[in-house]
Design goal:
InterPro entries: TPR-like_helical_dom_sf (IPR011990). The chain has 93 residues and is mostly helical. Helix content is 76%, strand content 0%.
Amino acid sequence: ALSKPLDEAFSLWKQLLEKPGIPSVRCPEQTVTSLHLLASLYRLQAQPIQALESFLLLQSLCRRLRDHLGRANALGQVTGILLQLECPSQAQV
């Protein structure tokens, strides 16, 4: 029940980001921050799969925005989650 608002937010971000190119948002930097917060909240709730998916969305957005530091941070988080899930071969890729 606690993750329902997070799930709804994730669904909306996913719909927005499935289109190619930079999304039409008021402030792309704030969108990056919002996605990072969403992924972190999933992680705090011990929902690693949802956190992983959220960090992958964040990574995709950062790639489009050419935010190399944000993308590296998101990929580092993805790697950490994959290692936590005992998927070292996937983390290595």
